[in-house]
Amino acid sequence: MEEQLDRRTRRTREAIKSAFIALVLEKGYDEVTIADIAQRADYNRGTFYNHYLGKEELLRDIHDEFLQGFASALLRPYEGLDRIAAKDTFPSGLMLFEHIELHRQVFQALLSVDKKLGLEVYDVMRESMRRDMHIEMEAAGQPIDYEIMLSYQMSATVGVFLYWAETGFKYSARYMAEQLMLLVDTRIDSVTFIRNS
Q: Pfam families of this UniProt entry (predicted)?
């Protein structure tokens, strides 16, 4: 009986979340009402309030769930491993892009509401990398500051996520992950300046 209630609760919450995301994308967050959400989810307002205090709590729940997916996607491919070569990091990049692809409407809706979402994704990923792994750099002439390198890598990755959203996700998750790996492994050769006459 308890399992049935849990399943029903999950189903109801998912319907409410889906309705909310669709409405935010259609109308914008400020225009969405609890009545709109309940009607779209095919429930009454009382059912909504049984699960959420208001749309702010609903938004926070969706937001937190989405961000938690990043931290777990980063590490999931390497469970049980102690060390991998840099060339073998593709699976985690792919899982990050697949997480966004699977939740692309959520990502777009959150971006439309929270302009700091990119920074929050950056913070979640950087914190996970600080806590759960350590990148070893190849020996170079000049020493590279670890924190600066980590910030650079995470900023670049988030920038690619945001570019992908701007393009309406016109490429597959696999293509984006492949492109990110190429970018990480490629050094710039030169810069040519274009002069407009």
A: TetR_C_8, TetR_N
